Amino acid sequence: MSTPEEMKSSAIERVTEVLSRRLRQGGRSTGQPDLYFQCEADEPQAYPGGFQVRIHTWRHWSDARVAFDADTGEVMAYSILRYADPLNDEEMTREEALAAASEAIQVPDDAVLKTFYHFEYGKNRKLARLEWKRIYQGLRVDGDTLRVTLHPKTHRIVEYFRKWRKLNLK
Amino acid sequence: MTEAQALEIVKERRKEIGIDPEMRVSSAEKAIVEYKKDPDEPGPAEDRVAWIIEFSCAWGYAVVHVEDRTGEILTVKGSA
Predict the structure, then answer these.
(1) pTM for the full predicted model
(2) For chain A, what are the domain ranges?
């Protein structure tokens, strides 16, 4: 008979196989499936037919994207998306959002706040969003933007997107 | 270049650049835009001061960039 540790390991292996297959079906190939999900096994429990092991899984919950200039390696844009718990229907003020954002990120000197609003991405999942535009020598820089989404209850940043290119004015 | 001059340039070449007759100007703004002569070729982009003129109608939109200094139409993009 397998030891409890062997049973736990075997159960995790099986679950990993199933979830990896689902990733492949979804068009994602990875040598590091733990980037997309993690598994944790409970202690084996006896039942009339043998033992069962319950597996807890955490699914992929965040996307980070970075765009580089292929010639120079310069970072052109990056984003981190992480719609987080807990459930929430509260709102925060613009001042609270600005204070929370400026504690966590550097807002560029040429950024001008464009908008502040709340939105629900699911039932009881309300978030607050700040968006800045870029003004250079009195003109808006088309395409450049800074977007920060905050959780009104925890004041944590749950989404960050910035495109602030190096200008090459002709 | 004024907004009116930029609009006049687009109006004169409207047919040539494929702006549907049904579309109307919805906004015009002088801004800094990214420009590449051939967007499909690799290489650095430039930035130009241009008028961004947006057209729209019930079924689509078009955006035209007119360079402020020369009046050249830099880019035409649209949904249709």
Answers:
(1) 0.74
(2) 4-59, 63-163
